[in-house]
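Open question from group meeting: does this chain pack into something compact, or does most of it stay loose? Before anyone orders reagents, we agreed to write out a predicted structure and look at it together. Recording both the input and the output here so the notebook holds the full record.
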Amino acid sequence: MPSIGREGALSTMPVLVTGAASGLGAAVVAAVASGGGHPVGLDIREPADPSVDREVVDLADREATEKAVDAIAGRYDGIGGLVTCAGIDACGELVDVDADAWERVIAVNLLGTVAIVRAALPSLIEGHGRIVTVASTLGLRAVPDATAYCASKFGVVGFTRALAAELAGRVGVTLLVPGGMQTSFFDDRPDKYKPPAGVTMNSPALVANAVVFALQQPIGCEIREMVVCPSGETSWP
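C-alpha cells returned:
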C-alpha cells in the first residue's frame, strides 16, 4: 500500500479531512488536491465543492464515525493520511454555558478526534501513513470564558503527544497549533467574543500549506509540532 510522503510528495491514497465543509478543513482539502493528493471530506454538512468525495457524519457519534471511515477505507483499499480540522466552541462563563453545549465541544473537538484516529489507525499503520491533529494556541494558553474550548484543545495536545510516542516509527504524527484564522468560526458568537476590528488573522490557505508540508515528509522524518499564526497573534507565546 502506498504511503504519504514516501517520495516527498502526497500519495494517491486518500487523505481524510474532518471539518471539510468550511474554514481550515476546506482549505486543507483544496491544498491536498492541489498537491496531487486525494482528499476525502468528513463533516456534518455537505462540502461547498460537490466534486469532493465525502462522508456526512457527526464526529460526536463514535459508531457513525467508525462506519464512515470503514466506508472510505473500503472504497480505496486503505487510507494514507488524516487531518482533524473539525472544531466548535461554546463561549461564556462556565455557569452560563448550557451543559449540553459545553459537553458537545468536548465530544466533537477531543472525543471526535480520538474516534476518527482510532478508526483509521489500522490502515494508517499498514501504509505508514500520517496524522495531523489540529489543536489551537488555546490548547497551550488558557483564557477566560473558554473553558470548554481550552479543555478540548489542551486534551488534543496531550492526546497527540502521547500518540506520537506510541506510534513512533509506524505512523507519522504532527500536532498543528494554529492561531487566529479568517474563517466563519467566529460568526455566530456574541460581539464581545469576536476578534476586534482591524485584527490581522491568517488565511486558512496558509495554514493548509503547512499541513501539506507535514504530510509530504518522507518515512523516518517527523514534523512533531508546528505553530502557525499571524505575526501579531495575541495568544502566542
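Observations to bring back to the group:
Strands lie at 14-18, 38-43, 53-56, 81-84, 130-134, 172-178, 225-228.
The radius of gyration is 17 Å.
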